[in-house]
Amino acid sequence: MFGDKQINTLNDLSGDITVFCREKVSYNFVKRNFLKGNVYLWHDCAFYNIFKQIPDGLGILNTFREDKESIIDNVPEDNNDLSYSGYATKPLDELVNILKEYKEIHTDRLHIAICGALLGKDVKLFPNSYYKNKAVFEYSLSRFLNVSFLEENND
Q1: φ, ψ for residue 63 (rounded to 5)?
Q2: What is the mean pLDDT of residues 59-67?
Q3: What is the pTM of this model?
Q4: Domain Polysaccharide pyruvyl transferase spans what residues (predicted)?
C-alpha cells in the first residue's frame, strides 16, 4: 500500500532504485509520484512457488483476518486465522499441509488465497479494508478458474 509517506521515503533514497508493484493501483500511484528509478508491475513473488496438484480435501477452511484489515462483520465460528496464528513465520510446508486437507478455502488473507490457488483448491477471496485483495485478484488471481472474488462479506 503506497501513500505520500512511502513515496517521500522512496524519493529521499539515493542510488539506483527499482520498485516492483504487485497490482495496478499501487503501480499507477508510484509511477506518477516516484521521481527517480524504475517502477514495474509484477505478480506477487508468492506466485513463483511451484506446488504439486494434490487430491481434493474435504470441507471448507475459513481463514479470515481478525485484525484491522478485516471488514468481515461476522467471522465464522470455525475461523482459523492461520497467518495470525503464526503460520506466516513457519516454513511454507506447514501451511501447505493445513491447506491441502480442505476442498475449499474462504479467506481475506491474500497469501492464503494465492497458496490455495496454486494448490488447485476452490478459493473464495473476500475484500480487505483497502484495495489490495481486489487489485491483486484483478491483476493475477483472476486467471485461476478455481478462484473467485466476493465483493460482499460473509454475513
Answers
A1: -135, 80
A2: 93
A3: 0.88
A4: 19-121
pLDDT at site 153: 54
**Grid coordinates in use for 125?**
477471496
Residues whose CB falls within 8 Å of the CB of residue 57, separated by 6 or more in sequence, listed in order: 100, 101, 102, 103, 121
3-state secondary structure of 50: coil
Percent over 90 (pLDDT), the chain: 63
Distance CA 35, CA 29 (A): 12
Domain ranges of the chain: 4-42, 47-149
pLDDT at 155 over 80: no
**Closest C-alpha among 95, 62, 102 to residue 81:** 62
Contact 44, 138 (CB under 8 A): no
